Amino acid sequence: MSKDIILGAIRRGLRRGPLPEDQAMALRARLTAHPRHLIPARSRVPRPEQIALFIRNIEKEFGTCTRVPDLAAIPDAVADYLAAQNLPTDFAMAPHPELESIPWATRPLLAQRPGRAQATDVVSLQHGYSGIAETGTLMLPASAHRPTTLNLLSDTFMVVLRATRIVGAYEEAWDLLRAENHDARSGGFMPRNVMLVTGPSRSADIESTLELGAHGPRRLHVLLVDDDPAAL
Amino acid sequence: MEIRSPEFKANVTHALADTRLQKALEFTRPAFPSRRAAAVANLPEFEQLRDIGRDIKNHTLANLDFYLETYAASVERAGGVVHWCSTADEARTAVLAICEKAGAKTVTKGKSMISEELGINDHLEAHGITPVETDLGEYILQIRNEGPSHIIAPAFHLNRDDWEESFRKVHTDLPADRVFNERRDILTEARTRLREKFLAADVGITGANFLIAETGSSVIVTNEGNGDLTQTLPRVHIALASIEKIVPTLEDATSLLRLLARSATGQDFSVYTTFSTGARRTEDLDGPSEYHVVLIDNGRSNMIGTEFQDMLRCIRCAACMNHCPVYFTVGGHAYGWVYPGPMGSVLTPSLIGVDKAGHLPNASTFCGKCESVCPVKIPLPSLMRHWREREFERHLSPAAARTNLALWAWFAKRPQFYRIATRIGARLLAFLGRKKGRLISLPFAGNWTAGRDLPTPEGETFFARYAREQREKKS
Fold first, then answer.
1. Residues of chain A contacting B297 with CB distance shorter than 8 Å
2. For residue A121, what pLDDT is reported?
3. How many C-alpha atoms does A87 have within 13 Å on its Cβ side?
4. What is the extent of the structural domain holding A137?
5. A92, A65: one domain
6. How far apart, in whole angstroms, are the C-alpha atoms of residue B254 and residue B275?
7. pLDDT in the model for residue B426
8. Mutual orientation of helices B64-77 and A2-14 as an angle, nearest 10°?
9. Residues of chain B with pLDDT under 70
């Protein structure tokens, strides 16, 4: 069997048989402890600066960000953004309880359609799981409430993110997922798909020159809900 | 992919005379190093992270059998299937079997170097399945029936009019007189065309930048989003990955990801870094129902325990070729196979044999830039030197080179003769070039002087001068 051939060749190279049990135990302990390595100092700053770093990095990577005081302010922010960009007012929306609790009726012209994205969707609205200040990155784990296609198929990609969900480094976002998510299939915490998104889609394949909007969204707009008293 | 590495010298002659290639090289050459330098300057911990990256990879390779088995068990727990493939042939067979079982007519593909190594596209086509490359660079190369010339910027050797010409040739349903005013128009046409392909595909094939033992995840890193559409929309997702892509935990992958984009494109982080773990869950609204990992050895396990084990640390960022004076003189195609530049000069002989790829480790100035920018500190010049030694031991190097080396070695081992010989040589050259101060041609070195002049020595050898200065200092 190929598996045995491959493992056999590796062990011959390492000049040993299967790993002795005490060493295997040490490696299993390392997997369980999943130790962190060096974390860059750039995100180790007081809370308001961390939020500012997140926004600065979003903008550095050609995304945009609007801060709103609470979820009730989202319909106005969405309607204003879409009008300013001259975009249609219907959009695909993640069927997430938080997004569904938003008082959308305050802006009756907005037409949100909960569910996964279709190829014809021009605009989508996703629920942000966590934001990573280090590089202005959004963590978007797939679930029944957060379909992956919303991140990819639309031209304009909007994400609602609560400020309390912004962390400094990637490792802290993994810790949130480890603590909060249970995957029934594997018994672990990883859902089928986790996307880390940093800015809108782009390509430099034509003459090494950057163009936005390759296959994914051309625009990324973050609606940041200021629910963190420490961040203001 | 067809192996043309044995014709390296002819490839180089061709590349140097190719004015369009030289134009593209000239255009891109300064961009890569300056982008990386800016990203590195922005992260004071970068040098420490390089040590960490090297150590993570070394730890994994020292326990590779354990981590591979752990990884495979994690994939299966999450509802995925692992196909262990010892050879390229087995991997092609496994991919074809999955596609045929899925009744696939078209297959979309994310960018993957291992796919090039295995020749997946030709194999699928030969069996009536249409592969569609969706990375913008790979898409145009597929149209033009060319291989990639760079591992992360596969089509940078093409100029804008090449793109326009190729698009006009294959997108024949669009008006022939349409105008491409800017690069964006080319991009938009490709985006529209490929969107149809994404939606129609039955199977999506991607590579993997990392495999995570702890969770059974495969990780892809892209900027375009094509890899994500490839692995999200079709009913079946196949991830192709070689065995050295494995890392133990998410934290290990995260540390390496901090190095990858900065070393590659000079971004702090790529736009899409995506972790796929198993097939679609019952409650999910999208994603593939089948998730397969084709785990490929194809010669790598033989590198374990040899001096070339260090090469298995490579995370395919392309920093080495982006900083290589040889690569930016001859371009990627001259190397004659999948992996160009310094990393290719070390890896290619391991995978296809030094008898076929012996020219590659010789095509280096040993300036050391590649090693100095490598995010996992692979000693690339030393490894190229090991290949030169092996080539010499196996009597594969040309007779003239062997004779000259033997002659030089005879003198080098006898210092008194070496000094006499260099003294005679220096005086002779000084005499020959006494009028102009330089020599425009030399016997036995016609190729060298064809491109440059040799400044004449002043007549005194280094040894003599050093001894004289030491004497003067004392007195």
1. 2, 5-6, 9
2. 96
3. 23
4. 43-231
5. yes
6. 11
7. 86
8. 150
9. none
The answer to whether A143 contacts chain B (CB < 8 Å) is: yes
pLDDT for the residue A36: 98
Specify the pLDDT at position B220: 98
Q: Which residue has the tokens 């369009």?
A: B20
Q: Does A34 touch chain B (CB under 8 A)?
A: yes
Whether residue A12 is found in the same domain as residue A70: no
H/E stretch holding A75: helix A74-84
Q: Indicate whether A180 and A65 sit together in one domain.
A: yes
3-state secondary structure of A207: coil
Distance from CA of A203 to the nearest CA of B (A): 6
pLDDT of A222: 98
How far apart CA B123 and CA B105 sit, in angstroms, is 14
Which of A57, A115, A195 lies closest to B285 in CB terms?
A115
Specify burial of residue B46 (Cβ count, 10 A radius: 0-12, 13-18, 19+). Answer: middle
Domain count, chain A: 2
Cα(B105)–Cα(B129) distance, integer angstroms:
5
- Cβ contacts below 8 Å, chain A against chain B, sum to 282
- Are residues A2 and A88 part of one domain? no
Q: Looking at CA atoms only, how far is residue A104 from chain B in angstroms?
A: 23
| Paired tokens of B402 | 């062997």
Are A10 and A87 members of one domain? no
Cβ distance A209 to B28 less than 8 Å, yes or no, reads no
Task: Kindly provide the b/e burial profile for residues A67-102, where b requires at least 16 CB atoms within 10 angstroms of the residue's own CB.
Answer: bbeebebbbebbbebbeeeebeeebbbbbbeebeeb
The CA distance from B442 to B185, in Å, is 53
Cβ–Cβ < 8 Å for A204, B184: no
The tens place of each residue's pLDDT in chain A, 232 residues long, gives 899 999 999 999 999 999 999 999 999 999 999 999 999 999 999 999 999 999 999 999 999 999 999 999 999 999 999 999 999 999 999 999 999 999 999 999 999 999 999 999 999 999 999 999 999 999 999 999 999 999 999 999 999 999 999 999 999 999 999 999 999 999 999 999 999 999 999 999 998 889 999 999 999 999 999 999 988 7
The residue of A5, A206, A209 whose CB has the most chain B CBs within 10 angstroms, and thus the best one to mutate to test that interface, is A206
Q: What is the pLDDT of residue B176?
A: 86
Torsion angle of C-alpha atoms B231, B145, B339, B234, degrees rounded to 10? 10
| pLDDT tens, residue by residue, A202-227 | 999 998 889 999 999 999 999 999 99
pLDDT (tens digit per residue) in B57-89: 999 999 999 999 999 999 999 999 999 999 999
- The Cα of A83 is separated from the nearest Cα of chain B by a number of Å equal to 23
Question: Between B250-264 and A170-180, two packed helices, what is the crossing angle to 10 degrees?
Answer: 150
Same-domain status, A196 and A113: yes
Instruction: Return residues 78-117 of A near B (CB < 8 Å).
Output: 95, 115-116
Parse chain B into domains and list their residue ranges: 1-42+314-397, 56-298, 400-474
Q: Is A31 in contact with B45 (Cβ distance < 8 A)?
A: no
Query: What's this model's pTM, rounded to 2 decimal places?
Result: 0.94
Q: What is the pLDDT of residue B449?
A: 83
Residue A171 sits at the vertex; the CA angle it makes with A169 and A176, to the nearest 5 degrees, is: 105
Q: Judge whether A137 is closer than 8 Å to chain B, CB to CB.
A: yes
- CB-side neighbour CA atoms (13 Å) of B428: 8
Q: Under CATH, to which class is B56-298 assigned?
A: alpha beta
CA distance B435 to B204: 69
- ipTM surpassing 0.85, yes or no? yes
Are A30 and A47 members of one domain? no
Residues A104 and A202 in one domain: yes
Cα B458–Cα B464–Cα B466 angle in degrees, nearest 5: 100
CB B149 within 8 A of CB B328: no
Structure tokens at B171: 């997108």
